[in-house]
Design a protein that fits this description.
Length: about 425
C-alpha cells in the first residue's frame, strides 16, 4: 500500500493514513489531469527524476519516489498514475491491499451522478469502469472490487461508442449489468412497498408519538386510503419523489393546523394536501422552466390533451357497459422519434416502459413501436385523467391494461403534433 503512494516504508500506520489523506485532499484540489496536462506533467516528472515506471511486483506497477520529496510531488505522481491506462491496475491493487489490511470480503465503490458530468467526464467514468471490469477475474466469487454507478436514462447519458468516434464501446448488459431503481406502477407489490417505506419512517419517529409503541402505520398520517393511494402512485415508482410529496403534504397540513383552535383535535394528511403537494412537485421538480424548451412544453401539452380527450370520451361511452374500457396513460411511438421527447424522459414527465422493473405482459400481436407512459403526477395534475377517479384508475385501470398486454393505448406519430410541425412560411 505504501509503495502505491510513494510513502516511506518505515512510517507507521497512522502516519501512512495521514499521508494518504493529504494526497487525497491535494488531488481533489488540483485535479486537472486532462490528456494534454498528463503528457506535460509526465515529461516534467521525468525531467525531475521521478520514477513514472509505476508498478507493483504483484500488479506490474511501481510508484517509488525518493525519501526527501514533498507531498505535492507524490500527489503529482499518483495523479499521473491514475490518469494513465494502468489506472485500473493501480485502483485494483489499492483495494486488494485494503482487503488484506481490513480483512474484507470485497469492496463496493458507489459512483453517483455520473450523468451530471460533461461528455468528456462521462467518457472517462465509463473508461474506468470498463478497465476495472476487464481487469477483474473470471471467477466472480473471488473478485474483491465492485462498482455501482448511478446514471440517468440513456437519453441523458453519453455511453462511449466507436460509431460516434470514441476509442472504445461501453455496452449496457455487456460491460455492466443494469438494474432500475424505479418501480413499475403495475407491480402487485407496488402499494405494499410504499406502505412499508412509510411505516419504517414512522417507526423511526416512534418516540414522537407515531403509532402505539412506535409501531406506526400509514393510518397514523393519512386520513384516508385514497390519500395514500394518490401519494404513492403519483410518485410513479420513484421513492425519492414519494418522500418529497409527503414532505410537501405535511407542510400543507401544518399550515392548515395553524388555523385550528380546538385543542386535542387530530388532523392528518388529506387528499387536498396531496393534490397541493403534487402540484408543487410537478412545477418545481418535473416541469421545470429552465430544463425544458418551449417546444417541449407545447409537445407535452398536446400529448396530455390527446390522452385527456380520449379518456373523457371513453368515460362517457363506458356508462352502462358491463366491462368498461380503462383509462390510459400509455402510448406507443416510433423509436426514430424518441429523440424528440428525450429531455421529457430525463425530466420524468414521460417514462419508457421498457426501462422499469415491470413484469412483462404480451399479447399475440406485438405492440407497434416503443411503449411509453405519461408520468402519473403529470397526468393527475394536468388533467389527462379524471381526478375524482384517480385512485381507482391507479389501482384498477392501469393494472387491467397491463395484464391485457396494453391493449388500450394510443399510437402517436409525433410528426403530426403541432409543436413539431415546421412552418410552411419561408424565412
Amino acid at each position: 500500500m505504501k509503495r502505491l503512494f510513494g510513502i516511506k516504508s518505515n512510517k507507521d500506520f497512522d502516519s501512512t493514513i495521514k499521508d494518504i489523506k493529504q494526497l487525497n485532499d491535494l488531488l481533489l484540489h488540483k485535479l486537472t489531469y486532462s490528456p494534454q496536462n498528463i503528457t506535460i506533467r509526465t515529461l516534467e516528472t521525468e525531467k525531475q527524476g521521478i520514477s513514472t515506471n509505476v508498478g507493483l511486483e504483484s500488479a506490474g506497477v511501481s510508484a517509488a519516489v525518493s525519501s526527501d520529496q514533498e507531498i505535492e510531488k507524490k500527489a503529482e505522481l499518483v495523479g499521473v498514475t491514475l490518469s494513465h491506462e494502468n489506472a485500473a491496475e493501480f485502483i485494483r491493487e489499492f483495494f486488494k491491499q485494503l482487503k488484506i489490511m481490513l480483512g474484507l470480503s470485497y469492496s463496493l465503490v458507489l459512483i453517483d451522478e455520473c450523468s451530471e458530468a460533461s461528455k468528456e467526464g462521462q467518457i472517462e467514468v465509463f473508461r474506468l469502469l470498463k478497465l476495472i471490469r476487464g481487469a477483474a477475474g473470471a471467477d466472480i466469487q473471488q473478485n474483491y472490487l465492485y462498482f455501482v454507478a448511478a446514471v440517468y436514462p440513456p437519453e441523458a447519458t453519453y455511453y462511449p461508442s466507436k460509431l460516434h468516434g470514441d476509442s472504445f464501446n461501453f455496452e449496457l448488459g455487456n460491460d455492466a449489468s443494469v438494474d432500475y431503481l424505479q418501480l413499475d406502477e403495475n407491480l402487485e407489490e407496488y402499494e405494499s412497498f410504499f406502505s412499508a417505506l412509510t411505516e419504517k419512517r414512522l417507526r423511526y419517529l416512534g418516540g414522537n408519538g407515531f403509532g402505539v409503541g412506535g409501531r406506526g402505520t400509514i393510518d397514523d398520517i393519512f386520513d384516508s386510503d385514497k390519500a395514500f393511494t394518490i401519494a404513492a402512485y403519483t410518485a410513479n415508482g420513484i421513492p425519492r419523489r414519494y418522500i418529497e410529496i409527503l414532505k410537501q403534504a405535511y407542510d400543507n397540513l401544518h399550515q392548515r393546523a395553524i388555523g385550528i383552535k380546538e385543542q386535542g383535535q387530530i388532523i392528518k394528511i388529506s387528499v387536498r394536501d396531496i393534490e397541493s403537494a403534487v402540484q408543487t412537485v410537478v412545477s418545481n421538480n418535473i416541469l421545470v422552466q429552465n430544463k425544458l424548451t418551449d417546444k417541449e412544453f407545447k409537445l407535452l401539452d398536446e400529448l396530455v390533451n390527446k390522452l385527456g380527450r380520449r379518456n373523457r370520451k371513453q368515460e362517457t361511452e363506458n356508462k352502462g357497459k358491463e366491462k368498461p374500457v380503462p383509462a390510459i396513460v400509455y402510448f406507443t411511438m416510433s423509436r426514430s422519434q424518441i429523440l424528440e421527447i428525450s429531455n421529457l424522459i430525463t425530466q420524468g414527465a414521460i417514462h419508457d416502459k421498457g426501462r422499469t422493473r415491470v413484469r412483462k405482459f404480451y399479447r399475440d400481436e406485438a405492440l407497434q413501436g416503443e411503449l411509453m407512459s405519461l408520468d402519473l403526477a403529470v397526468a393527475f395534475h394536468n388533467g389527462a385523467i379524471n381526478k375524482t377517479r384517480a385512485a381507482e384508475i391507479f389501482k384498477k385501470d392501469l393494472k387491467e391494461n397491463a395484464k391485457s398486454g396494453y391493449e388500450w393505448c394510443s399510437d402517436f406519430n409525433l410528426s403530426k403534433f403541432k409543436a413539431l410541425k415546421k412552418s410552411d412560411t419561408a424565412v
